[in-house]
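Internal tracking record. Fields below are filled automatically when a chain is submitted to the structure queue. Please do not edit lines marked as system-generated. If the sequence contains nonstandard residues, flag them in the REMARKS field before resubmitting.
Queue: standard
Priority: normal
Entity type: single polypeptide chain
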Amino acid sequence: MPTPRPFPGGVPRRYRAEVDLTVTAVDRLEPQALGLVRLRGEELHARYGGHGPTPPSERYPDGADHARAGEVPHLDGDVADVSTPGVVLLGRDRSAGTAVAFANLRHVTDGVAEVRCLYVAPPFRGIGISRTLLTEVEREAAALGWAVVRVRVDARQPHATRFYREAGYRPTPPSPLLLEKDVRHR
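SYSTEM-GENERATED OUTPUT FOLLOWS
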């Protein structure tokens, strides 16, 4: 039998987790969500050789990477203003209660929201969690009255661009890295 081919995240296919996924809206300070924010920051920092966001462990050396003076660690490693309307969706394995993914959706302008981040922990990639989470993000946006969902993709992540394009997102001039989708007619 051939050796299983690794998938993004470096976990052999035979070790992919079976997940009974449940997605719920959570508070921005939900500890499991912040744990995934930290994991994502560390992963991006390592992947881009220090050219990504500063990992939370370096930004807050005392370990206090939680809310400070009205701020919350942002999902791309920066700090987000908690006054911005939006929602954090957390994907958990229902049987284990383990957080495996999160998405941060923020209001941008009248009727428009932006996916600030959609992240799946490495051991849980390649089994459809990101598609399920994106579907929930779109439902949540429509329920909140936001007709259009936008996402900014990074030129260094062509797989992310492909993922969103396959989900129906289209480039928005003037930038080919800003994609959007009308979610009203789901």
